[in-house]
UniProtKB/TrEMBL annotation:
Alphabetical keyword list: Carbohydrate metabolism
Organism: Paenibacillus methanolicus
Residue stretches making up the Glycosyl transferase family domain: 746-908
Residue ranges occupied by any Glycoside hydrolase family 57 N-terminal domain in the UniProt entry: 1-230
GO biological process: alpha-glucan biosynthetic process
Residues the record marks as active site: 177, 344
Protein known as: 1,4-alpha-glucan branching enzyme
InterPro entries referenced in this protein's UniProt entry, alphabetically: 57_glycoside_trans_central, BE_C, Branching_enz_MT3115-like, Glyco_hydro/deAcase_b/a-brl, Glyco_hydro_38_N_sf, Glyco_hydro_57/38_cen_sf, Glyco_hydro_57_N, Glyco_trans_1
Family affiliation: Belongs to the glycosyl hydrolase 57 family.
GO MF term set: 1,4-alpha-glucan branching enzyme activity
């Protein structure tokens, strides 16, 4: 249940304010009456409602209550007039009496309850019949809110307002427009939210794929449950063509006497004029005499009994469809299937006049007829099934194309630069007055606090998703534009007063009267988030527990700029798998990396202690300077860790980007340092250093190699490369190839693709050699006409590669970036995996293909050269040689028996030489030697 904040304190003739009157009379009162009647009759029903903070503000506002009462009185007078006007119209007169009685009934119901609906909904929740969710304070479209502070303020204000009204914290939230973006779950968790409703696509395309499809919720990485809506039940009720509301026996929404009457004469216009707007603009009165009848303009009088009978039939139909859907789901589920059917509340009664009747019939049938399905609230479901699969869901909404498209178009996107600037200004202003965050001020300090809190209200009201929605829909666009501008103007005027310490108490009081929602709005919610070090985030007891658990172990700290869920290149995967295997061996492994939105600053995951350090930098910082800021942050964090009593026994630095931290901690605390060079700048650029940036990176790589007691590389080619590039003695270099886990947890189902599949996966950059494969494609496809080339990955060369492949039509398919599950499915389907790299320090993709026993054709370069023995484990083509690559790919496809035999040999080599268990043991030995040498050196000095 939602309405934007459409209160206008100075006038009662706004068209938009009528939205509230219509929703009250046609939706909220009928739904409340229906639920109270069910409860009174002993029907054990369940429904879940969202009541947005803006709607709650309208419902409790005495001005809006009185105006609604006046609106009811006006409608009663109109209905009385209609009974007289239609005294000679036997087909319509009963309907006029029906409306008169209806309006009088709801007026009496409203007055009997003291004009207060919120306590009555609360009583139904306290009785266990309904569950009430909250929403963001002003229904802001959260994925388009820029700052975390602003998102937190929207949620904090909503939660506080909910507690004020319902005496408990909300368990669930209706994310505005069902719009989810990665990391929102972390904020929801901070405020005690257990679940949210999401679009079906969010779970449908989750990573990993949801085992229970859409018939069960999914747990996000931060432990908040995402309930996906059921598409089938949505279509049955919502569809404009096939949905129930379009039945010909139902009342026609668009034939209202506010539009039908007054055209034929001046006298007729005087009759209807008091019930339209003072501007003489026509509006709906709520009195409608016709049923839908047909898709054309011909309409017959409405028959309430026919409509009620049809609602009962369609309730039966809905139940039968859900039973059939449940029976299908039972075939593969390990629990009772859940089907979640969310709709806009205004559908019931307002757009679909018979909606409340249908809902009541549905509740009674499910209770009395003892069907195999029943109604349940999300909280009841979570109590019954507390465990759920965990998955990462992507950005989504229930809007057009399940995206932000509705709220981000050419005609409404202009609002966001202003909203984002206002967010940032609110954070600055709040920070400048942080000393007022407590309570009990008086005088000027109290006025300042009032101005700050009113600035919060104005900003939030400007953020309402309704304004952008209206601009997209093209309805009352001028009103939506003016509301956005007006709230932003008032916000900036308040901030100007605060900045210049020139507060106008009369104007502030006027603004408080004008926009008087959210009495608990608190500017402190916008205080800048001072992201603490992960050390500070640990409680003293947890820190001590970690120290106790690792007391008798060697504490190894790996430094890596990327680590899951941040996956930019192959370094993240290599570091995480090595760290996890060392942890499985019983070693204490810590990884210090950079923060990632949506990931905790500190966690123990897969046995590894992960420290994610935030990097503070300006928006225009280039990559090299960002790297320096990252090193400062990592260094500060490790210093705090050590000074707090934490142990660091070995440092393991991965690549040049962590050089400064590795050197500083090594020198300051005399901690042994091991380095892994995953690739060199010299090698990436074909044996040359052209730019100043490339020379700086090379210098840092050399410095890291110099500082380390041992340098680990992943292939024999890399051994020679680092020895030559950095003039290292051979005994300082250790060869430890990358590894892979042969046990595939989620056995991939092969992709459905016609013909034989040639598969490439990797970044679309020059050194990966995709252009060579495309040059070879005509020769390959000539000899193997049913072959298809599938290219997975993204990168700066994608556009050029697509142009290069344009002449090959559908024989070449670009599938873009793929998830691990998708990659596995393509690997399982491939007839040959091609790795045509020009430079490849190792070649982890080759191991992945070997794991799936897929034939390989690789370039005879770098680490690939040592992984594959030509003609034994696969074919090696000359690097950059089109004919060589084409011949070997063609051979693999034309002689599949030999290719499969080589793939089996490759799998055996993978098992014996590239398993992390064995490789981690070698790395552990390198750590031990480094510690021993450091100890010996320290002993010699003493």
């Amino acid at each position: 249940m939602h309405l934007p904040y459409i209160r206008h304190h100075d006038r009662d003739d706004y068209l938009e304010e009528r939205w509230f009157y219509e929703a009250m009379l046609e939706t909220y009162l009928p739904l409340l009456e229906m639920m109270e009647r069910l409860d009174g009759d002993g029907v054990d029903f369940r429904m879940t409602l969202s009541m947005t903070p803006t709607l709650l503000a309208l419902l409790e506002d005495s001005l809006m209550q009185q105006r609604f009462l006046s609106h009811l009185d006006k409608l009663i007078r109109l209905a009385e007039s209609e009974t007289k006007r239609l005294k000679d119209e036997p087909s319509l007169l009963p309907l006029a009496h029906m409306y008169k009685e209806r309006f009088e009934h709801y007026k009496a119901m409203y007055i009997a309850g003291g004009m207060a609906l919120i306590p009555r909904f609360k009583a139904l929740q306290d009785a266990g019949k309904i569950e009430i969710m909250t929403s963001a304070a002003t229904h802001a479209f959260l994925p388009l809110v820029k700052t975390e502070e602003a998102i937190k303020a929207q949620i904090a204000t909503a939660v506080n307002d909910y507690v004020r009204h319902f005496g408990q914290r909300p368990r669930g939230i209706w994310l505005p427009e069902c719009a989810y973006s990665v990391g929102v779950d972390r904020i929801l968790r901070q405020y005690g939210i257990h679940y949210f409703i999401c679009d079906s696509t969010a779970v449908q395309y989750a990573t990993p794929r949801a085992n229970r499809e859409l018939y069960a919720p999914l747990l996000t990485p931060y432990g908040v449950t995402a309930f996906p809506r059921d598409p089938a039940s949505a279509r049955q009720v919502w569809s404009s063509t096939d949905g129930y509301p379009g039945d010909f026996d139902y009342r026609e929404y668009y034939r209202d006497i506010g539009w039908d009457l007054g055209w034929e004469s001046e006298e007729a216009w005087r009759y209807i004029k008091p019930y339209v707007l003072p501007t003489n603009e026509r509006v709906n009165t709520g009195i409608k005499y016709f049923r839908i009848t047909s898709k054309g303009s011909y309409k017959e009088p409405y028959n309430p009994e026919w409509a009620r009978g049809k609602a009962a039939m369609q309730a039966d139909h809905f139940v039968a469809c859900r039973q059939a859907e449940a029976e299908h789901a039972y075939g593969f589920l390990d629990r009772t299937p859940l089907m979640l059917s969310p709709y806009d509340a205004e559908l019931f009664g307002h757009w679909w006049y018979e909606g409340p009747i249908w809902l009541e019939e549905l509740c009674r049938k499910l209770y009395y007829d003892q069907h195999t399905i029943k109604m349940i609230t999300p909280s009841e479901y979570l109590a019954q099934y507390p465990l759920a699969d965990t998955g990462k869901i992507g950005d989504s909404s229930w809007g057009r194309n399940s995206s932000a498209e509705v709220w981000l178009q050419g005609h409404n996107d202009w609002i966001y630069r202003h909203l984002h600037q206002a967010e940032e200004r609110m954070i600055r202003v709040a920070g400048a007055h942080a000393e007022l965050a407590g309570a009990g001020e008086s005088g000027l300090r109290a006025l300042t606090r009032r101005a700050l809190n009113q600035a919060v209200r104005e900003l939030m009201l400007a953020q309402s998703s309704d304004w952008a929605f209206i601009m997209d829909a093209g309805t009352v666009v001028e009103y939506a534009v003016n509301r956005t501008k007006r709230h932003l103007f008032d916000f900036h005027r308040l901030c100007d007063m605060l900045d210049h310490e020139s507060l106008d108490p009369d104007w502030i009081a006027k603004l408080e009267e004008q926009d008087n929602c959210f009495p608990l709005a608190n500017f402190a919610d916008y205080l800048p988030i001072d992201v603490p070090s992960p050390v500070a985030l640990l409680s003293a007891s947890r820190f001590e527990r970690i120290m106790e658990r690792t007391r008798n172990k060697r504490n190894t700290f790996m430094l890596a700029w990327e680590y899951p869920p941040k996956n930019v290149g192959g370094l993240s995967k290599a570091v995480s798998e090595l760290a996890q295997e060392l942890a499985r061996r019983g070693e204490a492994v810590h990884v210090v990396t950079t923060s990632e939105f949506g990931a905790p600053y500190f966690e123990e995951k897969d046995g590894v202690f992960v420290h994610r350090v935030p990097v503070l930098h300006s928006g225009d910082t280039d990559f090299f300077h960002w790297m320096f800021e990252m090193n400062l942050a990592m260094t500060d964090h490790l210093v705090q860790w050590i000074e707090a009593g934490g142990r660091v026994d070995v440092l393991h630095a991965h690549d040049w980007m962590v050089y400064y931290t590795a050197r500083e901690i090594k020198m300051s605390y005399r901690i042994p340092l091991v380095a892994t060079i995953h690739a060199t700048e010299w090698g990436r650029n074909g044996g040359a250093l052209h730019t100043e940036l490339q020379q700086n990176i090379h210098r840092l790589e050399a410095g890291l190699c110099y500082e380390a007691s041992k340098v680990i590389v992943c292939s024999t080619t890399m051994v020679e490369e680092v020895r030559r590039c950095f003039e290292l003695p051979e005994d300082k270099i250790a060869l430890v190839p990358n590894g892979i886990d042969i046990h595939v947890e989620d056995a991939a189902q092969p992709k459905q693709e016609e013909g034989r599949v040639i598969f490439f996966i990797g970044r679309l950059v020059f050194e990966k050699g995709v252009q060579v494969l495309l040059h070879a494609a005509p020769q390959i496809l000539h000899h193997v006409p049913d072959a298809r080339i599938v290219i997975a990955g993204s990168g700066p060369m994608e556009h050029a590669l697509r142009q290069q492949a344009a002449g090959l039509g559908d024989r070449v398919r670009f599938v873009g970036f793929v998830s691990d599950h998708e990659k596995s499915a393509w690997m399982a389907r491939a007839d040959v995996v091609v790795i045509p790299s020009l430079y490849e320090p190792f070649g982890l993709v080759a191991l992945e293909a070997m794991r799936y026993r897929r034939p390989l054709v690789v370039s005879d370069t770098g680490g690939l050269a040592s992984i594959i023995e030509h003609g034994v484990h696969g074919f090696k083509a000359l690097p950059g040689h089109v004919e060589s690559l084409a011949w070997h790919v063609t051979e693999s496809l034309l002689y599949p028996e030999r290719a499969e035999s080589m793939a089996e040999n490759a799998y055996e080599k993978l098992v014996t030489e590239y398993q992390w268990e064995r490789l981690a043991q070698r790395v552990s030995g390198i750590y031990g030697d480094a510690v021993d040498r450091q100890f010996a050196a320290a002993s010699a000095q003493s």
